[in-house]
Each structure stands twice: as C-alpha cells, then as structure tokens.
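Appendix C: a fully annotated inverse folding record. The material below is reproduced so that readers can follow the format used throughout the book. The structure is listed first as tokens, followed by the designed sequence.
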C-alpha cells in the first residue's frame, strides 16, 4: 500500500467482501463452534485437537504460511505467519485461544451448548464469545484482505493455544523454546469484551493475574454414622467451611498474611479515569440478578473492585451426601476449589506458596489437609501512551462508529504477562465479546453486531498499523 488513497480503497474492498460473504462466514463459525474443545475434560482431548486442525486448515486455505500444530505438555499450540509486507513494515502477533469452558450445568442451556442457534441477532453457543468467536473474526479479517488485495498491509504472526481455560501451563515454556515464531513489534489479543452491549468498543490496558488451588480436608477413613461418632470426630465439611470463612474479613479483604504487601495502589489519574467511566451500579445489579453489590473494600468503589483490586472466591465446594432425602453421616472428606485474582505487583508464585502454607497452618490437628496448586498467572498493564494505542482507537471507531473507552479487565490471560516477561512484547487488548454474554455460564452468546463491527475493526486495524513503520512501534 503506497498511499493513503490506495490503503483506503483496499480497506473498503476488504469490508465490502465481508458484507458479501456474511452468511457464508456465519455458517463457518457454526462449524467451528460445534467442535467440543473443552480443555478441562480429558474425554474431549480429541475434540480440542480437532479444533487445532480446523484452524490450521483454515489458515492454510487463506494463504497463510507455516501453519503448524506444536505438541505441548497440554493441548496443541498453533502458529502461522505471513511476513511479505517488507522489513520496514510492522510485525504483529495475533493471540487467541480455541479451547472453551465446560458447559455445565447442561440443564440450564436452552439448546445443547455445541449446537449453535441464531436468535435475536445473537449467536448462542459455548465459545461464541470466549474465545472461538473472536479467533474466527481474526481469520475472516485476514481472509478479506487476502481475497481482495492478495496480501496484507503488514506482517502477521499467529499464536493460538488450547490451554487458556485451564491456566495456560505450557505457554511460558513454549515462548521460551519458540521465541523466533512469536517475535513481533506488538501483540494484539482478542479475548475480552466491549465496554457495553450497546456497541461501545473498549481497549483493555490491564489484566488481573490469578492463583488457583484445590483444598481437601480428610477425616475418618470412610463416611461414619453421625449418631455414633458425632461429637467425637471433627466433621471435614465443618472444618473446611470454617477454614474458608476465615479467609475473608468483614471488609471483604483476603486474610492470608502478606497478600496485600505488594499491591500497587491506583494513581490519582487512574482513580479519576474509573470515576469518569459511565457505570450504573443498579443496572449492573439488575443484569447479574443479584439484590445488590457486596460491600467489598470500603476504600474502593465497585467499578475499581471489579478489575483493579485483588479478590478471593470459592469456585466450588463438595463432599458428603447430596442426594434425595437424608443420610446422617460425617463425611470422610470435603473439598473446595478456590482462586484469587491478582493485581500489579503481586507475584503469583509467592501467593501460591503463601496461600498453601496458610491453609495448612490453620487446619486443626483433628484432620489432614492437602492443598494442591492448580495454576497461576501474572497481572499486567500496558501503558496508554504505547504507540499502538492511537491506531487501535481509530480502527475501533471506524468499525463501531464510536470512540472506544479504556478499561482494565478483571479477568486473566496468562500469555500476556508471559510475552512481556520473556520477549518484552507489549499487548493491545482489543476484545469484542459482549459483557453480559454469559461466557463461563450457560447460554453463552455474542451479538451479530459485535461479530460484524469487530471484524471490520480488525480490517481497519491492519490498515492503520500497516501505515506505520516497525520502528514507530518501538517503546525503547
């Protein structure tokens, strides 16, 4: 692309192509969504691999080169590249994940989770928003350029993983071992959401980290009669509940010693930025179906607590009898899965150890406690003055017809911190899922509007970044 006129004409042609092939693309998306790529379920390992092969086949059909499936300690990683825009052109690494959350509880889905339905200008299916729908949008934006301009206005590399929903454990080792496949001037991640469901786009500039554990409290060698042994054997379920309850104080703060020691406080500018965002707490409560927001940390308003403060949650708890009627037992064991969301500058590895040590220290001598670390990831923040931010703003405004807002995400994407730590690669977080789209819950959905406007935005983003030189994106 040698001039602004040429670039504009090429962009228009690519967008026209997307409109002309909209029905075909939606049918292809349904095909992709039907693959049950649940990374947490060993019974679905073949399906996860099938999703990886589907992506490789699609990339290859578009003329993207070196589309490769890499074996890892977990599920496959897919890489590919198209690097024919020239040495002066920017190179962008595109990251998404193709694995999805388990669909449970199945009885709350209107239709089976891997049987996509189109209704009320929405696509309903597991993975529609998180993250297969967004990965698919990247493929279609590339297709639009390749079919109409016979090439891309910049160099692109692709990095798609199948373990994000189970902690991205293979990612750091892969980045270390295959840095040559991932080197770029900036990374673009689409694994987040727009600011609202009314077509207001967003640029994410921060992610929380995560720590995740399983706690098991073991009592007698088997379930015993509560009439015979009650008052003598410490009930593992009672012990577990007491231990978990002690982890949060009256102000909603996690009680593990040292947990807040390294938390980076928000600056005055960040407090002001949060205060300026349009946020209606009553509407938020109505959308989630809760009577009211929890009290939480008193010094931080709800919007800050949702994305810029650490948290603690019990993600699941089980043990004992839960069938029909009654069964008067003291269960042999009880267990829970728990997690924390972390913020800069908390070290998830230190947190993993301190939480494990604390739980072991507060367990009474009447039971045995096992604490197993499941996974963790680091928090990360991208400076808002990064040279890739302004082009992203222009691209999103062109695609959605509205200027984007800036937000920190409450979620975690371990690869973002890993790319920064190992390659010094900063990330533009440009997400297109709907904030109320039920990702991680039954009846996940994504609006047709976000699918279409988001894909158009990506077409514009490649044009905007392609108009720059690689040196323009340097942050040195």
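Designed amino acids, in order:
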């Amino acid at each position: 692309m040698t001039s602004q006129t040429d670039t504009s004409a090429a962009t228009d042609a690519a967008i026209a192509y997307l409109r002309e092939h909209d029905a075909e693309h939606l049918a292809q998306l349904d095909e992709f969504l039907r693959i049950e790529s649940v990374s947490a379920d060993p019974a679905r390992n073949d399906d996860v691999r099938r999703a990886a092969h589907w992506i490789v086949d699609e990339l290859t059909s578009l003329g993207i080169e070196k589309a490769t499936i890499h074996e890892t300690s977990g599920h496959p990683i897919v890489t590919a590249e198209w690097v024919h825009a020239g040495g002066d052109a920017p190179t962008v690494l595109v990251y998404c994940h193709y694995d999805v959350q388990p669909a449970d509880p199945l009885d709350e889905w209107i239709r089976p989770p891997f049987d996509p339905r189109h209704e009320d200008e929405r696509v309903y299916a597991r993975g529609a928003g998180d993250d297969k729908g967004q990965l698919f949008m990247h493929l279609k934006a590339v297709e639009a350029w390749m079919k109409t301009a016979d090439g891309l206005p910049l160099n692109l590399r692709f990095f798609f993983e199948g373990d994000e929903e189970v902690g991205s454990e293979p990612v750091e080792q892969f980045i270390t071992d295959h840095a040559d496949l991932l080197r770029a001037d900036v990374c673009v991640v689409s694994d987040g959401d727009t600011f609202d469901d009314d077509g207001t786009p967003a640029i994410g500039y921060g992610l929380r980290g995560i720590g995740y554990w399983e706690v098991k409290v073991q009592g007698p060698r088997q379930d015993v009669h509560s009439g015979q042994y009650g008052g003598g054997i410490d009930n593992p379920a009672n012990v577990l509940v007491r231990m978990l309850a002690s982890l949060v104080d009256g102000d909603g703060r996690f009680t593990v010693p040292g947990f807040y020691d390294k938390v980076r406080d928000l600056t005055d500018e960040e407090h002001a930025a949060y205060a300026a965002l349009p946020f209606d707490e009553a509407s938020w409560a109505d959308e989630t179906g809760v009577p009211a927001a929890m009290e939480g940390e008193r010094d931080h308003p709800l919007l800050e607590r949702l994305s810029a403060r650490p948290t603690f949650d019990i993600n699941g708890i089980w043990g004992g009898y839960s069938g029909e009627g009654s069964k008067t037992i003291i269960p042999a064991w009880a267990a829970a899965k728990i997690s924390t969301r972390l913020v800069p500058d908390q070290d998830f590895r230190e947190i993993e150890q301190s939480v494990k040590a604390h739980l072991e220290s507060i367990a009474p001598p009447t039971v045995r406690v096992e604490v197993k670390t499941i996974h963790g990831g680091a928090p990360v923040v991208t400076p808002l003055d990064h040279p890739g931010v302004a082009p992203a703003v222009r691209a999103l405004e062109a695609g959605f017809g509205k200027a984007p807002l800036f937000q920190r995400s409450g979620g975690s994407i371990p690869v973002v911190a890993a790319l920064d730590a190992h390659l010094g690669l900063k990330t533009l977080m440009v997400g297109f899922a709907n904030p109320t789209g039920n990702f991680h819950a039954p009846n996940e959905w994504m609006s047709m509007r976000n699918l279409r406007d988001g894909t158009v935005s990506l077409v514009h983003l490649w044009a905007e970044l392609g108009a720059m030189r690689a040196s323009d994106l340097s942050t040195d």
